[in-house]
Amino acid sequence: MTTMDIKDFKAGIYKSQYQYKSFSPNAININWQISNPELNMLLSQADIKLGELNAFSQLIPDVDFFIKMHVAKEGVKSSRIEGTHTNIEEALQKQEYILPENKDDWQEVQNYIRAMNNAIEQLTQIPLSNRLLNQAHSELLQGVRGKHKQPGEFRTSQNWIGGSSLNDAVFIPPHHDEVPDLMGDLENFLHNEQTPLPHLIKIGIAHYQFETIHPFLDGNGRIGRLLITLYLVSKGLLVKPTLYLSDYFEKYKSLYYDNLTRVRTHNDLTQWIKFFMEGVRQTADNSIQTFRSIIILRQECEQKIMGLGKKTLQAKSFLQYLYSNPITDSQDVAKVLNINISTALRVIEDFIRLEIIKETTGFKRNRIFSFEKYINLFR
Predict the structure, then answer these.
(1) Domain 3-290 part of CATH 1.10.10.10
(2) Could you give the CA distance from residue 182 to residue 219 in angstroms, rounded to a whole number?
(3) pLDDT tens per residue across span 189-246
(4) Exposed, middle or buried: residue 335 (CB in 10 Å: 0-12, 13-18, 19+)?
(5) Can you give the residue ranges of every domain in the chain?
(6) Contacts for 289-295: CB closer than 8 Å, 24+ residues apart
(7) Tell me: the pLDDT tens digits for 161-183?
(8) What topology is assigned to 306-376 in CATH?
(9) pTM of the full predicted structure?
């Protein structure tokens, strides 16, 4: 097997097709070496933060409630990079409350959330593989704008990035005939235990390669970002899926694209990996701060409801429910707590009085209630 230092990496070559040139990436399932001390330092810092986040997520009781919010935020951010305009409040709303003109964007985010949750669950039965990515892709495109673009299948035609056609495209990925072999090489690379490459560098390279292959007709960005979290969970670097890089990629969107492009134009894989490592470090640190803030908010809310006397037990159940459903209505509260609507409204009124939730519509009927202080932690 070829041995290569990251600094010597050659990204690939341009191949002439009919009236255009497509980029044909080189295989990545090779023996890698890292001689760059700066890269090793960034890797070390990212590893430390990731370990801290992993430990933190295991210390928090009922962490799965809070993970639901992380996933919702990821769904919003990853979809926004692709041009949707849903915010986290909308993503948490029921479909009946979404304005007709916003329903398509809302549905795309819901699809991403469902695809991510199902893929993470599937990891217990099947390994991280092209099969798993295809499944996630199929769910991602159900009933939305890309539904006619071969959901769940690698493309069988040429695609391009930027521009209105192949003639003015910013980047043309490999010809579709090359996709099966390239994705096979990527899968082998993810499972190759023979080359002692640190996991964070490995998934950084894999994300770059996935985006370069662009194996689907639509949804490549979202599946490529989902791949990062799936890899970290599958390798045990995260016991719980608590790290999502889309927020960082959206914040530095032009750098994200520039650094990916620079690998292809200048063979500069090192710069991309540095950017990626910094993303892991920053994002892990932000997630730790979010968990810390959740713990403080939780303590404040629990103290507030202690004064409710015999209603405290019911209030505790409602508070627990709010952590995974911070936007709700009286019908849902009645159903979840197994009480009638008038009792549910009294519980809600207690929470409004205690300034835990607030009413958001200003209506007398069909009112919606928001656990705003909690949602703000995920903005």
Answers:
(1) no
(2) 18
(3) 999 998 889 999 999 999 999 999 999 999 999 999 999 999 999 999 999 999 999 9
(4) exposed
(5) 3-290, 306-376
(6) 290/70, 290/377, 290/378, 291/53, 291/56, 291/57, 291/60, 291/66, 293/377, 294/60, 294/66, 294/374, 294/377, 295/60
(7) 998 999 999 999 999 999 999 99
(8) Arc Repressor Mutant, subunit A (1.10.10)
(9) 0.94
